[in-house]
């Protein structure tokens, strides 16, 4: 029986960095653009057509995230070259980072897959994950999948985050009891 560690709701989000296309480092979970929360979307990489579709759909929800005070960042284990090639199929304006290491994937508790062939990709890659980090640096919402077919529906996610962020709702971090 495997005993891998998974991040739990309410945990402090680990201090992790990835690289943006301009070569600068970005801290995952640290919001920008005046937001106080950040949604970190981990995607499989350029080889995944479902990731391409999801990232392009995410662009259409960028304003809804911003209205809820949530910055967005997407990251994968791809190389800079792979990300540059992927941009040919992406139409997004939010930051994309590359170079997530297998050790970082493990720190996040992500499922990791082997490529099916060299034509798919040249490295082990993370399956999709979503980490919403609040203003205290804690994991407020987490969604981890072991395959590309299961991801949060973005409309429901943005509406839910707006509701959570409304101070009149006093909505705590859910799922904190672990046995």
TrEMBL record:
Gene3D superfamilies: Glutaredoxin. Pfam families: AhpC-TSA (PF00578). It comes from the Bacteria. InterPro entries: AhpC/TSA, Thioredoxin-like_sf, Thioredoxin_domain. GO terms for molecular function: antioxidant activity; oxidoreductase activity. Residues 7-166 form the Thioredoxin domain. This is Peroxiredoxin.
């Amino acid at each position: 029986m495997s005993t891998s560690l998974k991040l739990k709701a309410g945990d402090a989000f680990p201090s992790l960095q990835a690289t943006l296309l301009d070569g600068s480092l970005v801290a995952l979970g640290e919001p920008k653009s005046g937001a106080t929360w950040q949604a970190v979307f981990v995607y499989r990489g350029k080889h995944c057509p479902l990731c391409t579709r999801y990232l392009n759909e995410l662009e259409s929800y960028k304003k809804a995230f911003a209205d809820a005070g949530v910055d967005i960042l997407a990251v994968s284990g791809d190389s800079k070259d792979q990300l540059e090639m992927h941009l040919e199929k992406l139409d997004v304006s939010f930051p994309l980072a590359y170079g997530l290491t297998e050790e970082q994937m493990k720190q996040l508790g992500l499922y990791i897959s082997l490529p099916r062939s060299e034509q798919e990709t040249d490295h082990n890659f993370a399956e999709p994950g979503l980490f919403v980090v609040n203003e205290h640096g804690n994991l407020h919402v987490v969604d981890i999948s072991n395959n590309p077919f299961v991801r949060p529906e973005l409309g429901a996610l943005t509406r839910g985050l707006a509701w959570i962020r409304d101070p009149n709702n006093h909505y705590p971090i859910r799922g904190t009891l672990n046995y």
